[in-house]
Structure formats: structure tokens, C-alpha cells
Amino acid sequence: MTTAQRLTDRKREAILEAAIAEFRANGFETTSMDKIAARAQVSKRTVYNHFPGKEELFAEILMQLWESSAEQRALIYRHDKPLRPQLLELMQSKMRMLSDSNFLDLARVAIAATIHSPERTQDMVARLGEREEGINTWISAAQADGRLKPGDPAFAAHQLQGLLKTFAFWPQVTLGQPPLAAALQQQVVDSAVDMFLANYAAGGPAR
């Protein structure tokens, strides 16, 4: 990596850190690219060189938080492993992301921005939705392998994730409740996986 590339990377990181601070402190609507540039100590032009707009910058932040909290290897379906431990690993990874205080703070900002101006945040929401595709892919692969009942994988994935979000996302985002304690996190994950397999596993949940 050249010196110029390292400088560019440092500026990009400074922009992301500044944007996180601004969004958390001031919300989506009030935060401006000018404020982000000032906090990052770079020019506004530099900010736009890295990110075409505020929506793209915010979506990038949330996706980075997702990636830092989720183990992507857990999203790969394994035909030679039982379903339950695979799903437990998948949902534990999801739970870690849902328990991240930065993610929860910025999720509140994203939801408020969507309510205030849905037309401006459609692309941001669509890009974030792509991060859910790994679970759909896992379910689709298990269905193709004959180990989950056939059906709409997106519908099944939405149900599965909803079992977690009911306890570990919506109360924290909408009511300000603290993240779940570790023991309760595991209880929610275990019960969600068992409920999912009881309904969707072909030939019974033990397969």
C-alpha cells in the first residue's frame, strides 16, 4: 500500500468516525456533510469524494457495524452438520449485532429518518435489507437439501429474525430498554431456533 493510499484510508476512517458521532448526537436530518467534514477535519469535497451523499454514508456505517458484529462464515450452509447448531451459530451472530450499542443508537436514527422522509431513505433501507440476504440464502440451501420444508425462504427468514427482534431490538430501539443480559440472549436464541425448527424442519427438528 502506498503512502497516498494510506492517507486516503485514514481520511475515510476519520469521516466514518465523525459521521457516527454526528448522527448519534444530532440525528439524521440535522446532521450535514459540512458538520461531518468539520468534525473529521477534512474538506467537504473530500467527504463527497468518498461518499456521494448523506444517505450512502449512513448506510455504509450501519453495514460496517453489521459486518463487525456478524461472523459471515456462520451464514454458509453445511449439509454435513445438523441444522440446530448451524442455526444457533447464525442467530448468536445476529444477537451480537442486535446487542451492539452503536448499532442500536444508529438504528434509532435510521428509523426516525425513514418516518420523517421515507422517499429520501428508500435506497438506504434497501441496501441494509441486502445484509439480511445471508439468512435467506442459508434457509434456501437447507430447503434445496431437503432438510427444511419447501416454501418462501424470505418469509421464513423474516419469521426467524422476528423472534429475536421482539426481545432484542424493538424494545431497545422504541422504548429505550437496555440490551438483554447474556443469559437471556441465549434463552431467546435457543427458543427461537427450536420454534423455527419445530415448524420448518423436514421430518422433525432433530435433523
TrEMBL record:
<keyword id="KW-0804">Transcription</keyword>
<dbReference type="InterPro" id="IPR050109">
    <property type="entry name" value="HTH-type_TetR-like_transc_reg"/>
</dbReference>
<dbReference type="GO" id="GO:0003700">
    <property type="term" value="F:DNA-binding transcription factor activity"/>
</dbReference>
<feature type="DNA-binding region" description="H-T-H motif">
    <location>
        <begin position="32"/>
        <end position="51"/>
    </location>
</feature>
<keyword id="KW-0678">Repressor</keyword>
<keyword id="KW-0238">DNA-binding</keyword>
<feature type="domain" description="HTH tetR-type">
    <location>
        <begin position="9"/>
        <end position="69"/>
    </location>
</feature>
<protein>
    <submittedName>
        <fullName>Transcriptional regulator</fullName>
    </submittedName>
</protein>
<dbReference type="Pfam" id="PF14246">
    <property type="entry name" value="TetR_C_7"/>
</dbReference>
<dbReference type="InterPro" id="IPR036271">
    <property type="entry name" value="Tet_transcr_reg_TetR-rel_C_sf"/>
</dbReference>
<dbReference type="InterPro" id="IPR009057">
    <property type="entry name" value="Homeodomain-like_sf"/>
</dbReference>
<dbReference type="GO" id="GO:0000976">
    <property type="term" value="F:transcription cis-regulatory region binding"/>
</dbReference>
<keyword id="KW-0805">Transcription regulation</keyword>
<dbReference type="Pfam" id="PF00440">
    <property type="entry name" value="TetR_N"/>
</dbReference>
<dbReference type="InterPro" id="IPR001647">
    <property type="entry name" value="HTH_TetR"/>
</dbReference>
<dbReference type="InterPro" id="IPR039536">
    <property type="entry name" value="TetR_C_Proteobacteria"/>
</dbReference>
<dbReference type="InterPro" id="IPR023772">
    <property type="entry name" value="DNA-bd_HTH_TetR-type_CS"/>
</dbReference>
